[in-house]
Amino acid sequence: MASKFLSLALLAITSSIAFASDPSSLQDFCVADAMNSVLVNGLVCKDPKLVEANDFFFSGLHLAGNTSNAVGSRVTLVNVAQIAGLNALGISVARIDYAPWGINPPHTHPRASEILTVLEGSLKVGFVTSNPENRLITKVLEKGDVFVFPVGLVHFQQNVGYGNAIAIAALSSQNPGVITIANAVFGSKPDISADILAKAFQVEKNTVYNFQSKF
């Protein structure tokens, strides 16, 4: 009986690993049909006979993003919403621009790992492991350096130079998603109860109200 349960446990583990990424395509491509309203896990395929080069094309990553905002960074994401041909391919890319001392605040990608390459400037990057260790793994990157953020873990970047910085991130999903921690906790709609957040963060409720007013 014990061996039977062990076999089932191993099957569950291997199955979870096998399905821990976007589904693989069963054809050459599955260009997303933006006009189709059918709801599926992903997007419905366009008729292959109607596919053209522009379905696999995007122009604009050479343009700097506007970093005039509270955090001093701008992410220009290119996923399946920008390139329909990414549908079912399990990849996307983003350009991140950072003002001096700007940050890409702590966030997670629920559906993707990320590999980040610094094109210009110096970035302090890091991620935090899951409970109970909550270990911070961090490093300062220079031009040409590459760093990986595992799927689902909270991570961040900060420009630690006096000039602008630029990075390119590749992600292992056509739609990686993003959950910015501060926005999710203090900017949810409707608000999370101040009683809950005050106890979670061990602060006064007025402090919670102050944070919520900023989001």
List keywords for this structure.
five-stranded antiparallel sheet; Jelly Rolls; globular; metal-binding; alpha+beta; 215 residues; 19% helix; 27% strand; apoplast; 4 helices; glycoprotein
Walkthrough of the structure:
Belongs to the germin family. The protein is of the alpha+beta class. It has a domain at 48-177: Jelly Rolls (Sandwich), CATH 2.60.120.10. The protein has four helices and ten strands, in the order H-E-E-E-E-E-E-E-E-E-E-H-H-H. The protein has helices at 2-18, 181-186, 194-201, 205-213, and strands at 73-78, 92-98, 103-108, 114-120, 123-128, 136-141, 146-149, 154-159, 165-171, 179-180. The strands form two sheets. Strands 1-2-9-4-7 form a five-stranded antiparallel β-sheet, with no helix packed on it. Strand 5 (123-128) and strand 6 (136-141) form a beta hairpin. Helix 3 (194-201) crosses helix 4. The protein is globular. Mean pLDDT is 89; it is low at 5-20.
Rg calculated over all Cα atoms: 20 Å
CATH architecture label name of the domain at 48-177: Sandwich
Order of helices and strands: HEEEEEEEEEEHHH
User: What shape does the CA trace take?
Assistant: globular
Strand content: 25-35%
Mean residue pLDDT: 89
The strands making up the biggest β-sheet line up spatially as 1-2-9-4-7
Q: What's the CATH first level of the domain at 48-177? A: Mainly Beta
Taking the sheet with the most strands, its summary is: 5 strands, antiparallel
Helix content: 10-25%
Number of helices: 4
Distance between the termini: 54 Å
Uncertain parts: 5-20
Binding site for oxalate: 104, 109, 114
Binding site for Mn(2+): 107, 109, 114, 155
Signal peptide: 1-20
Main location: secreted
